[in-house]
User: What shape does this take?
Amino acid sequence: MLKLLSIPLALLLLLAAAVVWSGGGAEEPRADFSFISRTDVNTLDIGQMSYLADMRVAYAIWEGLYAMHPETLVPVPGVASSHEVNPEKTVYTFHLRPEARWSNGDPVTAHDFVFAWRRILQSPGEYTYLHYYISNAETYCMRYARKEPVDFKTVGLEVPDPYTLRVTLPNPVTFFLDLMAFPAFYPLHEKSMRPFAHVGQDGRVVYDQQFTRPPNLVTNGAFKLTRWEFKRRLRLETNPRYWDIANVKSRSIDMAIVEDPLTMLRRYEFGKVDWLADIPSEIGSELMGMNRPDMHNFPGFATLFITLNCKPTLSGDRPNPMADFRIRQAMAIAIDKKTITHTILRMGEQPATNYIPPGVFAGYQSKPGLAYNLPLARRLLADAGYPGGKEFPRLTFIFRADRPAVRDWVQNVVKQWHTNLGIEVALQTLEGKTLRTRVNARDFDMAPGDWTGDYNDPSTFTDKFRSNSENNDSAWINEQYDRLVHAAASESDSAKRFRLLEQAEQTLNDQLPVIPLCHLTNSYLFRDNVKGINLNPRNMTIFKGVYVQRKP
Amino acid sequence: MRQPLLELVDLNVAFDTERGRLRPVRDVCFSIFPGQTVALVGESGCGKSVTALSILRLIPQPPGRILSGKILLQGRDLLTCTENQMRSVRGKEIAMIFQEPMTSLNPVFTIGDQIMEAILLHQRVTHRQAKEIAEQSLRDVGIADPARRLSEYPHQMSGGMRQRAMIAMALSCSPQLLIADEPTTALDVTIQAQILELLRKLQRDTGMAILLITHDLGVVAENADTVGVMYASRIVEYATVEDLFDHPQHPYTEGLFRSVPRLGQLSERLATIPGTVPNPARFPSGCKFHPRCHRMQADRTCANTEPLPREVRPSHWAACHHIDTFAASPVTRPTLDHRREVVPLTDPALHPQQRASARD
Amino acid sequence: MIRVIAFRLLQFPLVLAVIYLTTFMLVWVVPGSPFGRAERKLDPIAEQAMKERFHADSWKSFLAYYPIQVITKGDFGRSMQYQEWSVTDIIKVSLPVSVTLGIFALTIGTIFGVMIGTLAAVNRGGLFDWLSLTIALIGISIPSFVVAALLLATFTGRFGLFPIGGCGGFREMVLPAVALSLAPLAYIARLTRISMLDVLGSDFVRTARAKGLSRFTVIWKHCLRNAFLPVLSYLGPAAAATFVGSFVVETVFSIPGLGQHFVNSVKNRDQTLILGTVMIYSVFLLTFNLLVDIAYSFVDPRIDITAKSSS
Assistant: This one.
């Protein structure tokens, strides 16, 4: 019998020997700074970018007219060394610095910006809408999409000389410089993209997106992309032609893509990477509980809420009780949000009664909304015609099946409504994109929602609830809100503008088309020797200033 | 007297099963001399196959056990050999062929492979030489176009040809003893005759001995030199073939002969031996045959005491209490060196049926 | 034989076309758009422009453009989610990884599975038999992500034994291959055991022993080949499934194989990638089934696949 075991044993020994003999794969030289991103970059075409992971890389390899200061995240001159603006704040003139260079040595000119911005209007992406602040940009975009004849010269862009760019806006935009630092406004190097151009069936020039893959990609930022292994890693190295290279702290950056929480944590703990940028909730709450010094948890730029459908009738012609704002208020103040943040989510979130995360916009003061108040909730419900929740129509709460944290808090909220108000809400799980389709069609009663800001101005939050906004999932129409937001859009004085927006937000917090639950936080894992990582709510890291202090 | 090639001395084999211990082979003694054909005849389940397999120690040892006895191959006790030593006996000094040639050959290897396997195992020859030997053995067993047959698979041959191939495989290393366990039972009658004739011819050519296991008395009559009749795990009668057929001593043997139907004889009923073969788990006490025996008398000897084989006629042993004895012979071990001349089938004068009828 | 193979190969395009069309229909029936993020609605103009770029604004335009490209150039277009990469690029980069891992895993699974099963049959009722049945039970019952996570947690990082996931050299492959091999190993062990038990009682085993062959040779040479047939039937679909990658094992060990794309492409409604991955899987499945059928006739000469009638 034992003799028969000889073959399997021999094979096992062979396998063990092979393992020992093979050693690890040949390791390339370790980058100065390495981190793990949970998702791969979806696209590096700045016109099409929308995901955080993409933008993180974009910040490193490109630079716009203005750039974010590595520490303060305030817009500072980038490609543009200075600018002038007219008193009405509607015409910006940017002066480009002559020493700004592309990675292949070509100078960065105003034409590069115009080329990129025209392209984003012709091939619209997620953030094309930011360009609508420019005169006639929206019109141009829509007519071009409908294949109507239209001239780009109608758009408010002028290039008096290669190093000057003039932008005309119909209304003042106080945060315009911040926008100039956003990837949607970065320049593109047309000459290197030309080999990828081809003429489509309609006679229009389209660029094959392969131009973004190294070695084809030419960029003008602090780093250049030297390697992109699909779904494995990205490698960035300093761009020797960058005009401010003296201030670039690391020579190379490595981004590895690891989806599994356990694996990424292990890699970090064994010192293979310096920074975990996206900490999954599966391990996040546990890490929080351990009070580790290398776990950095800080307020974020997003709010978690419950989207309530405010239409007069729901799908299937059912009358919608939530069309009455008193019911919405009752539902909001009947939830003890502390249970949710402190026992379910546990990532340091604070319960929220208002919509915009406090303290993220300098000079903007959100006032708190309606607080938890059970007696008042019950009275409101009774006043609206459903004392004790009797005969309250049965509504359905749809949510994503694959996020355990979401499922937990939704169930908790529904239970609280039942206990505190006596109303029955059914639960229904849906797959991610299916849920999105339902919400887009406004075919739902209530659903979880969240909103992350895009740029450094409260309007990135308030625009969502304009009655004509695509993203107004609640289908909430409020004249006063629209009026205030519209007035703010044409107000050139920042302080006055903020007051208008504050009032608009107050209306929102009062009328509650969504019930704010909490303001979300960000979490990073990195050790003391990592410098330059900004704990800014906007979750932006300017790699120019990041480096690891290695022991000499 | 010359030395027997193979001698079984008081062989006892047991099987330990859930139903208890079975003893399929009890106190079996017989011997085979070089060039002889010894037949072991009996009904199914009497222990003849187990005896044959025990000689090569092919009984699976966990349930099976050889309790006692000796198996002497030219004086060497096989029961004391190591497994390695046994492996050089199997196929080389003693070869065995089996009943079902289709299932007894491995269906996924060619005939050539299987024969050459045996050759290469026991002889120091090259691959090519082995092939030639294999081809020759196929020719020796009368298979036409042996070179082609070597690369054929068992399922591509007929039953008779397969059995010839098995024989070729068994004989490829020139064994001294061939054990043939019911070699023709699964074949039709005409092929039977051919195979048996082939065996006789090979025996003449090589001088090997044959242990022939069968239940067919006709086969015994034509091929055996000496015969052992087995009943319920014992040898109950052992004699030369002529003496057995002319003067059967044991009631069981008598019963067997009587139940063979005769041509030309009218009878309303076939004669049978009353009763059935006993269940090995519950053998009767005393003489295993006594419940079915007409010789049993009022005294309880048959039921109490097991009769031992005694020489009741010259060179003729039987195990029964009620036989006229031959000069009050002591109990001796049966060793019969008897070789009769092989007579061709076509001589009707010597047909066993007629011999038996002549006795009446 | 050649004729049979050729005939089977001719059937491939028909089968693949049916699979393509069925998948295409399913893809268009399912709600959800390939473009846009989960928590906000994409600007309709942008969405329309993106769809037009991908010839995906309606099922008609999709059908008018893509099948021709597939047939004439083998081009499945660009992935809608990873827009820089063509589906062929993605497959070219990830398939070899999955296939290597799959081959490794299946080899381990088959070799050790067959051995464990054989030894269990030989040792029937004994300690090894009980041990093998336990291993088989564990292998079949424990979900792969548990096994993968356990292996990762135990064997990586410390002592520098194995790297923490990733892909590249032989060492990186070992743990994921082991994780991937457990289920097939368990199944193959069971199959082999039963088949071997059957074969061990065959008459030709007795003949082989009577020839003087050792138990070792009889089992590993004579019995195994006969007992292998059921395992061979299982290997066909098992190979196809293992080679195209396992989502779970690839995620845990950060292996950029094809498995994740099967799942993620559906989640992302990435129509072009879905079709690409489904086609690859189908080709694998068809090919492996054909190979298994051919292999049958080599392993067991009684089986003749050229026979006109099948009984």
